[in-house]
Amino acid sequence: MSKSEYIIQVKNIVKTYNGRKVLNDISFALKRGELLAILGPPGSGKTTLLKIIAGLIKQDVGDIIIDGRIVNDLPPYERGVSLVFETLALYPNMSVYENIASPLIAEKKDKEYIDKRVGEIAKLLKIEHILDRKADKLSGGERQRVAIARALAKEAEIYLLDEPLSNLDAKIRYALRTEFKKLKSILGKTIILATSDPIDALALGDNVILLFNGAIIQEGRPSDVYYAPRNISIARYLTGNVLNEVSISIDSYGKSVSVDAGQEFSIDPYFLKVLREVSETSITLASYADACIIDKSIESCSGIKIAGEFIGYEYRGSEYLIYARKNGRIFRSLRTNLPNVTFGEKVDVCIPHTNALLFSSKTGDLIR
Amino acid sequence: MKRNQYTRPLILYRVRKLLKFALLIAILIVYLIPIYGMFSLAFKPRAEIYSGLFELTRITLENFEEAYRYGAYSAITNSIIVTVGGVAIALVLAILASYAFSRFAIKGKNILMFYILSTRMMPPITLIIPIFIMFFNIGLKGTYLGLILVYAMMSIPLSIWMIKSFIDDIPKDIDQAALIDGHSTMFILFKIIIPMVIPGIAASAAFAAIMLWNEFLFALLLSGVDTKPTSVLLSSIRGERGFNWGRVAAIEVIYILPIIVLVFWLQKYMLRGLTFGTVRR
Asked: Per the CB < 8 Å rule, is B180 touching A92?
């Protein structure tokens, strides 16, 4: 059999539990050395999908093809996959060394080789100093590293990572994410990463698959998914439900445009033209917080400008999330400094047309 | 102390605490008096046996020498042999069975589990005649092995239920991780699962050991002259001239000590065993 260009192909996978379809016709393919992020809310079927690929759960329908070979009936250890469990699943009674060495012991490698390989991996993941510690005596971040180390110790074609960055506090999470990127480029391995955090998926994935209720609803490069979410619920999910939204109605002649957020708004001529070209009469205009501008007074706004009221801010590590309100709608803007305003003061909200997303109000689908 | 709205409840709280404490002390005394009496009798000279339960003027070991002559030490040895043997066989089988029940998809698993437990529900005396005839015919009556086998049978059900609950508490992800690493089921059981359920194994060993150590009915009918355990010896204690209470008490002291040591040693595991299934670790 000639080697296909894909290291793994997943074809039409269906899995049903007690009459409920947890995975519905899942297909995708992955090239060698790529990182695929499977993004979906908890319960969307990510873990089940990874366990099916690993051979721990049997699919009802569909094929898993790894390196040109159908592996449907192969036990986990013959599939050439390694998995980091969401629960980490370290062996608590064993030391960190024994945990990492476990797959090598199973392969009956000699002691010298095991020592060398465990040492290398421990160095890579910066856990050399805890090799003698018992696995149940580690901190959350250390356990995460040990779990990744154990998975890497196994020579596999594909590494599956189930929520590798969850259950960690923000600081360690951030550090691990950065490190993970480095690790990925050093190792050059094929990785499938399941996560419920859009930031992880968009930051780490070469490609992203959005899995909702057991079905793939969008796939593509992170920037494609981010800047062209197929519908408004995806856009909301990607921002963690902090999407700026306004409803816009256009009269049937395309002459007048009104924004539900109130009368005090202005639209720049270019954007007005764009809106009139849209065939729908009622649309939702959405914008991410990093594209939206909130400031005391904005002179020129090439998009929609709404006069709102400053209601608060959150400090987000290196940036501030500024909140403004207009007629019950909340607008959020991400910026590096605080605007020079007090609570309740009037501010301008500007949604530039460049990164604005237009969705049909009826179906929620992306129009432009 | 200034009187305020909290004063009355505080007094009430203290009185209640005191009452609870007094009640506990009273219960403790009720439980400990017979044990004290047993120890005091065991160390009393024979001439002073009827001088009262509590007076202990002179400590002597003559009752223990008497007990030795009466065969108490070989009876204790027999008790140890049959108890340890029964517990050991029960544990080996129960560990294997409970792992299978916990992890494998077995048809009719719940019914089987209930069936195993139900064997403990019938009165043991109903089994004694068939077992006696069976053992007599195949030559197991009067042997250690015979009693050990019956004892293993008696302790398997509870051990399976208890150890299974401990294995159930271990996330299945750990087994699956080992499968991906490429380990065999036996490796997973012996190197990963068993070390994690040692407390459970210890707890069920302790419960089984206590039950078997105290067992009387099967021991009475199935043991022979040389294999008689302590419980049977104690029942046939009447001496040539009435009861020799000092000797009885001495044998009882020797009989009770291993269990006390065992309970104190495995106390924390046994507590966890009693609450099994109710506490998440």
From this structure: no
